[in-house]
Specification:
heterodimer, A: alpha/beta, Rossmann fold, five-stranded parallel β-sheet, B: seven-stranded parallel β-sheet, 12 helices
């Protein structure tokens, strides 16, 4: 067992579920996997508005935000979330998404600033590897 | 030396406040410098600790209390502590789930903290984060501890008023609230009081509390149903009465002086520990530990040598 205090967490990550669907299994699986990979995960639960997500990201000073969405409303909600983040000066936070998102939407989400999109059934290891890389590029501040 | 981030916090910049909390949590020199600059602006907030076993409804209770204080026009800070996994160093911080109603109100600031290896129900830098909220101008600061049972009583040394939360029907009712935790209560809250046995728990607690030394402050027992906001007005009133008692009796100053002493000691311990780790990382000590393992030296002699070196370094 390594000593926690000596190294600190790898970063602080917000896992949020925007929109109205109540299926939070995927979000919980990712939250646990990231905890087990050494991250401090702030989990906010279902039915989050863009304002709630941005405000939690600000107050918790997170390095990254994972958005879980299964409702199909991502093309409406994600631009509003990115707006709310920008209004608060949080442009440097890594944002990614997981859930049911059709191929044709992905290029537009990338333009919005989402750095990755994971589909249902993708192994949690992929998300962890992505995050490690993205935060490494950014120069993680928490620690 | 002037800290830009400290100025920004005093100027009401919420992002700077959040960022500075991280710096303080990481124990950086920048964070320490900012804390020093902000310290004269602390000491005004009423710090209310909320502790109790897992599942007793602490987060929901804090949310209900925050709403009540906001209705009085008071600004509110919340620090919610959850445990760090000793295996991965990660943590799952879920207290915001119950605090969603507060998000749109700029008069409330919520911060989640992981214990990062610290015992006692709080994180190492929880008190500093409370000071930051205090310097930011929050009038009431709630500190929600990890779900504790028996001897995680650090909160009583960090808070002005400590609420201990119990619920009816946790097996042997008083079992989960033994010795230490019962003794630190300034106000006892029976949450989920719509359950069976709430009155029985209240009666048992009254009996137990009556067995302890008679004190000037009689610990009130308040029954609440936090999910419905029931009993919250009575709880707010009990907290206000406790504060008035502290001020009138002079205990406010006594507690604050005690907190100050503890904080200084904690800082000294941190610094000494840093020095110790640096010293032991140097060559030469490993072979001394091996000698202890082989029983050719005893641990006390080696410890004496370590202390002598630490003191010699000044």
């Amino acid at each position: 067992m390594r000593e926690v205090s000596a190294t600190g967490p790898k970063g602080r990550v917000l896992i949020a579920k925007p929109g109205l669907d109540g299926h939070d299994r995927g979000a919980k699986v990712i939250a646990r996997a990231l905890r087990d990979a050494g991250y401090e995960v702030i989990y906010t639960g279902i039915r989050q508005t863009p304002e709630m997500i941005a405000e939690a990201a600000l107050q918790e000073d997170v390095d990254a935000i994972g958005l879980s969405i299964l409702s199909g409303a991502h093309m409406t909600l994600f631009p509003r979330i990115m707006d709310a983040l920008h209004q608060r000066g949080l442009e440097d936070v890594v944002v990614w998404a997981g859930g049911i998102i059709p191929d044709e939407d992905i290029p537009r989400l990338r333009v919005l600033g989402l750095q990755a999109v994971f589909r249902p059934g993708s192994p949690t290891g992929e998300t962890i590897a992505f995050l490690e890389q993205a935060l490494g590029r950014r120069g993680v501040r928490a620690g | 030396m002037s800290s830009a981030i400290a100025e920004a916090v005093r100027g009401g910049d919420r992002r700077a406040l959040a960022r500075l909390m991280s710096l303080v949590e990481q124990g950086t020199a920048e964070g320490r410098a900012a804390l020093r600059q902000l310290f004269p602006h602390t000491g005004r907030a009423h710090v209310v600790g909320v502790t109790g076993p897992p599942g007793s409804g602490k987060s929901t209770l804090v949310k209900a209390l925050a709403l009540a204080y906001r209705a009085q026009g008071k600004t509110v800070g919340i620090v919610a502590v959850d445990p760090t996994s000793p295996f991965s160093g990660g943590a799952l911080l879920g207290d915001r789930i119950r605090m969603q109603e507060l998000h749109a109100d700029p008069g409330v600031f919520v911060r989640s903290m992981a214990t990062r290896g610290s015992m006692g129900g709080l994180a190492r830098s929880t008190i500093e984060v409370v000071h930051l909220l205090d310097a930011f101008g929050k009038e009431v600061v709630f500190v929600e501890t990890v779900g504790v049972g028996q001897d995680e009583v650090d909160i009583a040394r960090a808070a002005d008023t400590t609420l201990v939360v119990g619920v009816p029907g946790l097996g042997d009712d008083v079992q989960a609230l033994k010795a230490g935790v019962l003794e630190i209560a300034d106000v006892f809250v029976i949450n989920k009081a719509d359950r069976e046995n709430a009155n029985q728990l209240a009666a048992e607690l009254t009996m137990l509390l009556s067995l302890s030394e008679p004190r000037a402050w009689q610990v009130p027992i308040v029954q609440t149903v936090a999910t419905e906001g029931r009993g919250i007005d009575q709880l707010v009133e009990a907290i206000a009465r406790h504060r008035a008692y502290l001020e009138q009796s002079g205990h406010w100053r006594v507690r604050r002086a005690d907190q100050a002493r503890r904080q200084v000691v904690a800082i000294v311990e941190d610094r000494l520990k840093e020095q110790l780790e640096r010293l032991l990382a140097q060559e030469g000590w490993v072979s001394r530990f091996d000698q202890v393992a082989e029983r050719t030296q005893d641990p006390y002699a080696v410890a004496e040598a370590v202390v002598a070196r630490l003191l010699a370094r000044g």
